Amino acid sequence: MTRKAEHIPAPHRLEGRCAAALLVLLVLLVLLAPVAAPPQSRAQGAQPFVGVSPEGITCLIGGAAKSGLVEGPAVAPDIEPLHEFTLITPEGPRLTAWSRGKPFRVGGKGECEPHFQVKLPLEPAQLGPYMLAISGPKRLVAKKLPGDLEILPPDDSGAVALVARYLKSKGLDAQPVAIVQAFRVDLNGDGAKDMLVNAINTQRTTASAGEYAVVLARLAGAPGEPAIALAEDITPETTSFQSTLWENTIVAIADLDGDGAMEIVVYGEFFRGEGWEVLRIRNGKADQPLFCGCGG
Prior knowledge:
By secondary structure, this protein is of the alpha+beta class. It contains 4 helices and 17 strands. The protein starts with 9 loop residues before the first helix and ends with a strand.
């Protein structure tokens, strides 16, 4: 018996066409939708290091991973409560502390870059100088520190000569040599002691032309070369406004990434901001791979 074709009323055919069109539209929306930015990468296994102020305020500067130094936000997710840190100064290890809770995010407004702080429960008697907290027990952190560090007096003749030559090269012969920190230490891993100097000359009130704040290095293997300015700030002209010189304190000298050369961790500030920097010498030139804070 011949089967009759089934009759579909017109409204049903219209509904079927609408459903097919809607499906096509959904597919197009999915294909054409913008791809969301990937979340911030994490540096699993990185060894974090944290700046600690005399008041106990911290800044997660970054960490050392197999790929090299990484920024603080990439390290923060993997710092668990009771993470062990050894706190150091240029003189060496000072004390051990364990973090409380997870790192928390601050900043992101004005000139402040978003960064993370780490709670380190330190007693008032343990505070005082600026310190760097490096992940790990004291015996392992000590291996990252230079074994040949020599702390020099501010009037050391070699340090004074280094700053004087720098000032002359900048046309600042009339400015006094004002050294606040000086060291002899092997910075590049060649076995010879280099010179590292922090010099600051400012009234810290109104800006005066020629005032300066510099961190200088001279490699022992290049005595005839100009000083390497790791950090450099010079007031160009005298004004009635407050000085904006970025004044540094050398907080730690350590091989943070394990490549055999030293990194210099400094804390800097001026009247509108403050922050922590990692400075180093690469191929004979100054390099600043990491910063944590406001206004740097």
